[in-house]
Amino acid sequence: MEQLVILSKLEQEYLLHAIEAAIPLRDARQFRLWTQGPLQALLPHQVMVCLQFGEHDELRHIECAHSMVLDAGVHNRLANRDDGLALRLARHCGGEAEPALAPFLGELRELGMENLLIRGTERLPGGATFFVLFGLPHRPRPRHAYFLELLLPYLHMGLQRVGGSQARTRAAALARPVSAREAEILHWVREGKSNEEIGLILGISGLTVKNHLQRLYRLLGVSNRAHAIARGMALQLFDRPTQMLARAA
């Protein structure tokens, strides 16, 4: 049976203030100020790592906000995009409210971050988000998990806006927009199709596909297919609807 959580008057005020302050969040600066202000007042912590995933569970965006001077090595161990602790926790725990953290306890103790809160959304259209609050002053109680649960929709919306805003900024910095044909070809590259297979799908030659890819590489500043896919994910190019000119076999 779940424990009933009754909020004090002060906690109710902090919660309402955190919700009201979260509604207008639009960029990374506003989001970080919110995490270190209204959210910090309700859920004191040293470091919060926020992860935004795409529809195929690829990591799109990561934010790390902290209320302390954070050593670069510790920052990297917590928030590295490839194998940081927050990412590994997200892969391991998903959206579970009470995840099993036994595999990570040694590392958490070593970092002095064993008091933590974790919460993630379920799979949603456009992707999921996951949040880790490291370095709480005391072992979290059910009421702290309840606060985070109540604020999860606002954390999710805020991070989605931040990730989308930064992706649009990066896309605007390109020398020109990615064409519909280039986006379509990149889609099939991500699906693992060869140039010849893409040509058959789109009704063009493999050489034409290769030429499109070379122009796309130069535009994105990459040198191979894997880097182009990663850059496309960062720019959210795969979110755009593509008009397929032929059915995939």
UniProtKB/TrEMBL annotation:
CDD domains: LuxR_C_like. The keyword Transcription regulation applies. The keyword Transcription applies. Keywords: DNA-binding, Transcription, Transcription regulation. Residues 171-236 form the HTH luxR-type domain. This is Helix-turn-helix transcriptional regulator. It comes from Duganella aceris. The lineage of its organism: Bacteria, Pseudomonadati, Pseudomonadota, Betaproteobacteria, Burkholderiales.
